[in-house]
Amino acid sequence: MDEAILQFEHFGFQYNAQSEPTLYDINLSVRRGERVLIAGPSGCGKSTLAHCINGLIPFSYRGEMSGSLRIAGRETREESIFEISRHVGTVLQDPDGQFIGLTVAEDVAFALENDCVQEPALHERVARAASLVGLEEHLSHAPNELSGGQRQRVSLAGVLVNKLDVLLFDEPLANLDPAAGKAAIELIEQLQAETGAAVILIEHRLEDVLHRDVDRIVLMGGGRILADAAPDELLSGSWLRENGIREPLYLTALRYAGVEIRPEMAPRSIRTLRLGEEEKARVRDWFAAAPPPPARQPRPVLLEAKALRFSYAGRQEALKGVSVRAGQGELLAIVGRNGAGKSTFSKLVCGFETQQSGSILFHGKDMAALSIKERADRIGYVMQNPNQMISKVMIFDEVALGLRTRGVREEEVRRRVEETLKICGLWPFRNWPVSALSFGQKKRVTIASILVLEPEMILLDEPTAGQDYRHYTEIMEFLVALQRRGVTVAMITHDMHLMLEYAERAVVFSRGRVIADADCAEVLTDPEIIEQASLKETSLYALAQLCGVADGRAFVRRFIDYERREQRP
Amino acid sequence: MTNLFNYIDRPSPIHRLTGATKLVCVLLWSFAAMLTYDTRLLGLLVVLSLALFRLSQIRLADVRFMLGFTAVFMLLNNLLVFLFAPQHGVSLYGTKHLLFSLGGGYDLTREQLFYHLNLFLKYLASIPVVLLFVCTTNPSEFAASLNRIGVKYTIAYAVALALRYIPDIQREYHEISQAQQARGIEMSRKESLGKRLRSASAILIPLILSSMDRIEVISNAMELRCFGKNKKRSWYMARPFTGWDYAAMAGSLALLLAALLLNFLNGSRFWNPFV
C-alpha cells in the first residue's frame, strides 16, 4: 500500500509558554506498514513531534500550529484527541507511570472500558491483546509483580486492543535493561508484521533499535528535520556524530581502524555489515598495533563488604553472602537485572538497612556503629531521579543544605559551596532557581550537593538514565574528573556503553549473589554472565569475529584502551 | 505492601457477592447499628455479624491488627463517656438504680452500665461487617461498585487510582526520606519541633514534585486511551447481580427498617427496660 497514513506539510508548532517555535517547517510522510525511527538529541523537538502525532498537541498542551498535519487523510486540529487515538496508539516512555489499572487485565481493558465495550467482547479482546504480547498468564498480576519489560508489554497490549494505523513509541528503551530492550524491539517488529500498522519509534539509542531493520531514519535537530534517509545512507555519513547521536559501537571501531563506511557495506546492523578483505585486514592491523595494556597499579582498598546477608521482613533473602571491594579512586560499575540485589547492597552500604550478617569495612574499620548521617560523610549516595532529592528553590541553598544541617559556619559553607559549584560546572547558574535547569543539570546539582560534604566515595544509581549522548558524555566526563581527584565512584547501571567506556571493573549481581567481578571486556563477552545479568553481547565482539580476530575479548579490550588513551587523554 | 484494602481471597459466599452489593449492605447495616440503641436489635445484629464473619472464612488472625486497634478505640470511648458523663444513663432512662458510689459524683448505676453495654454492642455489631467489606472486596471492583451506586465514574476512578498509587508513594516517601537523612536531615525526636517541620519539607517537596511528574504522565496516558470520551464506561471487573446480591441488600434494608420501626415503637432511639 502506498497511501500516506501520516502527512506533515510545512508544519510548525510553538508552545504558548515559549517565545520561540519548537518545530519549524516539518515535511514528513509515513505510509501504512512503514517502520520509521526518529532520532535526535534532547530538545531537538522529537517529543513535541510525537505529541503532535498522538494528539496531546494541541489538545493537552496548548500552542500555535502552522501548516498541515493529516492522519488518515484528516486534518488533526479539526478532530479530537479521542478521534486521533482511534488511529494512533501510543506507548509512553515510562512503563510504570502509564500503568493505570490495578492489574494487568484492567490496564489492558482501559481503552475498551472507556469505549463502553460490553461483555463478553470486553474479556475476549483483553485476552487476545494480552496473548499478542505474551502476557496471557499474567492477567491478574499487579504492576509491582512485573519486570520493566513486562510492564511495557502491558501498555503495548493496552493500545493493541483496538485496530490501529500507527503505533507510536516514545523512547521505548529508556527504562529497560539491555536484554529487555532487545526483546522489546523484536516484539515491535513482530507486531508490526501481524497488524500491518505503521511503526514510529522515537529513540536516541540507535544501535539498540537497529537490532531489527527499520525503513527510514529521520534525524532531527533544532526543531527541524535534518535528514530523512535509509539507515545505510545515514550511518555512512558523519550526520550522527555531528548531531549528538551515538553511532553504533562497531562503526566507531571501524572508524578507529581507518575504514571508511559506505552505504554498500550495509552498515545498518552488525548482522548485515559486509566488509571487503582489505577492510578486514585493516581492522586486524589496528588490533595488532595495540600498545601493551596500561599497567594497573593495585589500589589500596577503601570499602570492603564481607559476606553480607540480608532479607526484608518476611521475604526471600535479598543478599546471600555478598562480598565486594572498592579500591581508592576506582570507577566501578555494579550491574545485574532488577531484583538481583544491587539496590539492597547500596542501602546496606549507606546504612539505610542493616545486614543480618557480614560486615562492611571502610578504611579497614567496621561501619556497623555509624549512623546514616555519619556514613554519608564518607560515602555519598545520589538517587536516580534528581527530582527525588531537590528540596530547595535556589541552587546555592540546595548544595548548601548538607553543610548547614551539619552546623558548619556560614562563611565556610559559602566557600565550600562555591568551590563545589565550580568543580561541577554550575558556577554560572549559582543564583538561578533549580526549576530553570534541564534534567541533566539538575542531576549535576544533586551530585554537587553530595560532593560538597567531601565524601571519599560516591554511589550513583543510574547516573545517565534518560540522558542523550551529549549530556551522558558531560556527566560521565565529570565523574571521571572526580575520580582523577581521588574520589571513588561506584555506579549502579544497565548502560553497557557506560560500562565499556568508563568503568574499570564490573561487579555483576544475580539473585542475591555476586557472580562476576572482572573487567568490563570480560563481562560483556561472557555469554553466561550476559544471560544472567540481562545484558547483551557487545557488537564489538561480533565485529571481531567478522574480521577474523580470534580473541574477541582482547579486541574489546583494545577498543576500550584506545578510547581511553586516544579519545580522552 | 500495605494498602487501604486488605483483600484476602478465599472461596466464600461473601466473596461471591458483588462489590456494589457489599458497599450497599455495609452502608445500610452501619446506619441501622448507628441509629438504634435497642438492645434486642443490637443483639441480633451482633449475632448476625459474627455469623457472617464466620461464613466469610476470614480468620481472626487475618484482622488482628485492625481488631486490636478498634478494641483500644472502643475502650477509650467508653472510658471517656464514663469520665465526662457518669450520669448519662440516668438522664436517658429516667431512673437511678445505684450500685455503689465511687465518690466525687461518680455513682455507678445500672442505667449507666446498661448504656455502656449498648455502646459495646454497637461496636460489636458494626466493626465485623466493615472489616468484612474491607477484606472481601477486591480493590479492583471498588471503583466499579461506587460507579454502580451512582458516583460519577471520573470520581470513582480517582479513588481507584489513589489505591493504585498509595503503595508507590509510600515507597517513594521512604526512599526520599533515607536519601535526605544521609544529607543530614534529622527526623528523630532529638530535634526541636520547628527543626523537624523544616526537615519534613525536605522530604515533602521532592515527594510533591515527583508526584506532579507522575500525574502528568498518568493523565496523558489516560487521555490517550480515551478516558472521559463518553458519559459512561464499562468495567472489566464488574459482575452482574445474582439472586444472592438482591437477597443480601433486601436483608440489610430490612434491618435498617427494623431499626426505624423500633425507633417509632419505643418513642426514642432507646429501649428502656427500667420502667
Which key features would you list for this structure?
heterodimer, A: 569 residues, alpha/beta, 6-stranded mixed β-sheet, globular, B: 275 residues, mainly alpha, two-stranded antiparallel sheet, 3% strand, flat
Structure overview:
- The complex is a heterodimer of chains A (569) and B (275).
- By secondary structure, chain A is an alpha/beta fold.
- Helices cover 38% and strands 22% of the residues of chain A.
- Chain A has a six-stranded mixed β-sheet with strand order 6-7-8-3-9-10, sandwiched between helices. Chain A has a six-stranded mixed β-sheet with strand order 16-17-18-13-19-20, with helices on both faces. In chain A, strands 2-1-4-5 form a four-stranded antiparallel β-sheet, with helices on one face.
- Chain A is globular and about 70 Å long.
- Chain A starts with a strand and ends with a helix.
- Chain B has 275 residues and is an all-alpha fold.
- Chain B contains ten helices and two strands.
- Chain B has helices at 13-16, 19-35, 39-55, 64-84, 88-93, 110-136, 139-148, 153-182, 193-224, 243-266, and strands at 98-101, 107-109.
- In chain B, strands 1-2 form a two-stranded antiparallel ribbon.
- In chain B, helix 2 packs antiparallel against helix 6 and helix 8 crosses helix 9.
- Chain B is flat, with a radius of gyration of 24 Å.
- At the A-B interface, helix 4, helix 5, helix 6, helix 14 and helix 15 of A face helix 8 and helix 9 of B.
